[in-house]
Specification:
GO terms for molecular function: crossover junction DNA endonuclease activity; magnesium ion binding; nucleic acid binding. It is found in: Cytoplasm. Belongs to the RecU family. It catalyses: Endonucleolytic cleavage at a junction such as a reciprocal single-stranded crossover between two homologous DNA duplexes (Holliday junction). The strands form 3 sheets. The protein has a 6-stranded mixed sheet, sandwiched between helices. It has a single domain, classed as 3-Layer(aba) Sandwich (Trna Endonuclease, Chain: A, domain 1), CATH 3.40.1350.10. About 8% of the residues have low confidence. It has 5 helices and 12 strands. With 200 residues, it is of the alpha+beta class.
């Protein structure tokens, strides 16, 4: 059991996926967004393209059980602080910071996937001149988009003013940038970053 700093319990969803030992991973079949991005970032680092890492989540362990002398089971833990975004690093001398989310929805992306402190963090990154965005995957459609943080913040503020609680997919297609899926790298978001933030 993990808890946020305020004491709220953090719940995870257990996902059981079939294992296909001879299945090719081309096009992200059977992989989570996090796994694909971690593999992509490893490819970027190995080829000297960019240095991007997934941020570790600081955890305070409170209670541990030892069912066997050789094994320890964490029974209770707390996040030391509210998480900001998933990934950060540097590309061509610019600070990169982004969050990655996925949904099974086909027509919209729920804003409940984001948290107030994440939006605030993105605003701070933008204020200091960093490159900040979100990578959104529609898992059922197997489509991935890069959406600049300014646009996410716009939809977030509209929601707070009584607007929609989700971003329509057509708006993501309008404001965002489609990321073609591949093998190496799997989700080549840096090629989109190059076009969006460095081409002018």
């Amino acid at each position: 059991m993990f808890k946020y700093p305020g004491g709220k319990t953090y719940e995870t969803k257990q996902i059981n996926k079939p294992i296909h030992p001879f299945q090719t991973n081309y096009g992200n079949r059977g992989m989570t967004l996090e796994e694909d991005l971690n593999a992509t970032n490893e490819y970027y680092r190995e080829h000297g393209i960019a240095v991007i890492y997934k941020k570790p989540t600081p955890v305070q362990i409170v209670r541990v059980d030892y069912p066997k002398r050789s094994a320890a089971v964490i029974k209770e833990a707390y996040f030391k602080q509210a998480s900001t975004t998933d990934y950060n690093g540097v590309y061509r001398g610019k600070y990169i910071d982004f969050e990655a989310k996925e949904t099974k929805n086909k027509t919209s992306f729920p804003l409940k996937n984001f948290h107030e402190h994440q939006i605030h963090h993105m605003q701070q990154v933008l204020r200091h001149g960093g490159i900040c965005f979100v990578i959104l995957r529609f898992t059922t459609l197997n489509e991935v988009y890069l959406l600049d943080a300014n646009h996410l913040i716009m939809f977030w503020e509209q929601q707070r003013s009584g607007g929609r609680k989700s971003i329509p997919k057509r708006e993501i297609e309008r404001y965002g940038h489609y990321i073609a899926l591949g093998y190496q790298p799997r989700i080549d978001y840096i090629s989109v970053v190059e076009k969006v933030y460095f081409s002018h």
